[in-house]
Amino acid sequence: MNFLFLFFLFPLVTLSQSLNYDYSITFGNHVIAINEINYDFQEGDLIGCFFINQNGQLQCCGSTVYNNEEVVYVSAWPDDFLTENQEGFYEGDEMILGLYLCDNNEYMSLSYNFFSPDFSIIHSDIFYTSNGISQIDVDVSFSPNCNSSLESQENDKKKVNTINYLGQVFEKNNSNYPFFIFYDDGTVEKKLIIR
Fold this sequence. Notes:
Elements: H1 2-15, E1 30-37, E2 46-52, E3 58-65, E4 72-76, E5 96-100, E6 106-109, E7 120-122, E8 133-140, H2 150-156, E9 159-164, E10 178-183, E11 188-192
């Protein structure tokens, strides 16, 4: 019974950590190429490859920042056998993908992240082989719809209502008093015109 309890506790503890996408370059990497994905990467999105280290936490062993490239790939690095600490994969280890996307959420491989399916990615299993190459398709569960620029968001929204600081609806902007403009996308703009 204790073994079963620890089995279910382990993923909960590891999921509670915030991920670090830093890694050590060793030798004999494995390249993962993402062929198809149901999400349009935004500039600055992070794509990483993780393993579960000796402390039971996810540790990055390869990542990349999306910079409008046509092909998205990640180099995953193995453990350096000359050091005591595990920096990367052992031969045959399962590789866990992680995406830090434009909505500031981390999306993890569903095989690992089954407790939080809203922030999961589905792909075929990938196992580390030195100097290996894997091509995968990725399906992001409930992928975010993030506009690539704030300017396009500003142009799309329409004014719904304007109220003064007392909560009264009015049409003309009052000077020297704060007022609030409500937009159809749920945003609110606070203004104060001094004359």
